[in-house]
Design a protein that fits this description.
432 residues; five-stranded antiparallel β-sheet; 14 helices; 22 strands
């Protein structure tokens, strides 16, 4: 069959690469893709928001399955549009995608399902949110253990973890008054700050059966030691020792299953990837947020390790027969993804810098360089985003995987390139 992947980031490159390994797949198209997907698949110059043209292309090119990568088209209803056109498509419909499209809606479902999560308040304007912070924390210099979030989609950047009242008030100003995230800031969620290590547990569900993927750990803050502003993710590794097999069972029982049931009861049955962003507190795992697609960069190390044919999993989900597939097979070796970013990210950055050393990195064993923000100009690969590459490597241990990934990173250069140097170091404090 032919498969269409929608999106242009590192997640979509990893999806196209993995789908292309299936013996059942003839051609993989990526719309619009990037310089990396141009090597592993066929790029199509159609924007993810152009539903009519995507549907027309899928029909004309006999695409037996379309896989939606990013959250924005899912929240906008691309799955509904494809289904109405009689096409097979992987991902949740518009109603179910509100689990990521609205943090307030997600919190409501978590409360209904009795899933452990942070206490929260919802505000519809900056003034009421500001009054709440000033009334609750009147003393200058006191710890303000809250997190301020834009309700809607903000490319992973609409979250501010606060320590002082000034942090919270500034976040409220940026979200609700300056509208730096646009309409995503029409509502504000303020919730209690939870302390502990974060983990990502991704599961695929057809609304009845839940198949968990290998757990991973993302690194959201920009700089080493989890300092600096939040980003879309500066690296990830899988598996993470913080999620033991017994912890995984608890997460499935207390988090994933109740959430899927609550969505079904709300007449929003979920089919696709349900990604729980968790924090491991002293009281056990609690949900920070849900995403409705594969995480980026968690997707890259997870798919590096997956040995089961991905097409079999995706098709079974769309057809509602996930219970029939065999248990997933995994490479026992850990994998690590290091994100290489543009100077200035997650703030302002320049684009169009030529990237050198990609072919040298690609020749290293157990390494795959996934492209995120890249474009082709003739034969040159240029930077075209904040997060540019996801350098991913396998190794016999987490330490070896890290060494392999950073060995590849050192071979790649462009003006202003940078990365965190401590991806996966958290695993070293736990038995691996």
């Amino acid at each position: 069959m032919n498969v269409l992947v929608i999106g242009n980031g590192g997640r979509e490159h990893a999806l196209a690469w993995k789908i292309g390994q299936s013996s059942r797949v003839d051609r993989v198209f990526v719309a619009p893709g990037n310089a990396g997907t141009a090597l592993d698949a066929e790029n199509v110059d159609i924007a993810p928001s152009d539903f009519p043209q995507l549907i027309k292309f899928a029909k004309q090119n006999n695409c037996g399955l379309t896989v939606v990568g990013p959250e924005a088209p899912l929240v906008a209803g691309i799955v509904d549009a494809f289904q109405d056109a009689g096409l097979k498509v992987f991902g949740p419909n518009k109603a179910a995608a509100q689990m990521e499209g609205s943090k307030a809606f997600c919190k409501k479902i978590l409360r209904q399902a009795d899933v452990p999560t942070a206490e929260y308040r919802l505000f519809r304007d900056a003034d009421s949110a500001t009054r709440y912070i000033k009334d609750r924390f009147p003393h200058e210099g006191e710890d303000v253990p809250v997190v301020v979030k834009a309700d809607g989609l903000a490319a992973g950047k609409g979250v501010t973890v606060c320590r002082k009242a000034e942090d919270a008030l500034e976040a409220i100003n940026q979200i609700a008054r300056d509208k730096i995230f646009g309409d995503a800031g029409n509502q504000i969620v303020i919730e209690e700050r939870l302390d502990g290590q974060e983990a990502s547990v991704l599961a695929i569900t057809d609304g009845h059966t839940i198949v968990s993927l290998a757990p991973a750990q993302d690194h959201k803050p920009a700089f080493d030691n989890d300092e600096g502003p939040n980003t879309g993710g500066m690296g990830a590794y899988s598996p993470t020792p913080i999620v033991t097999p017994s912890m995984m069972s608890e997460i499935e029982e207390r988090v994933l299953v109740p959430t899927v049931h609550a969505l079904k009861r709300s007449r929003r049955p979920f089919r696709g990837v349900l990604y729980a962003g968790l924090i491991m507190t002293n009281q056990g795992p609690k949900v920070l947020e849900y995403n409705v697609r594969l995480g980026d960069p968690e997707c890259q190390p997870i798919l590096m390790r997956l040995k089961t044919d991905l097409i079999d999993i995706l098709e079974a989900t769309v057809d509602g027969r996930l219970a029939e597939i065999e248990p997933l097979q995994w490479d026992p070796r850990p994998a690590i993804c290091v994100v290489m970013a543009s100077d200035g990210y997650p703030g302002d950055y320049t684009q169009g810098h030529a990237i050198r050393g990609l072919s040298e990195a690609a020749q290293l064993p157990d390494v795959k360089v996934f492209h995120a923000g890249t474009t082709l100009k003739g034969s040159d690969v240029l930077t075209a985003g904040g997060r540019v590459l996801g350098v991913t490597a396998l190794g016999d241990s987490i330490a070896t995987a890290k060494l392999n990934a950073y060995t590849a990173v050192k071979k790649i250069r462009w003006e202003g390139a940078w990365c965190r140097k401590d991806i996966s170091d958290k695993a070293q404090i736990l038995p691996s």
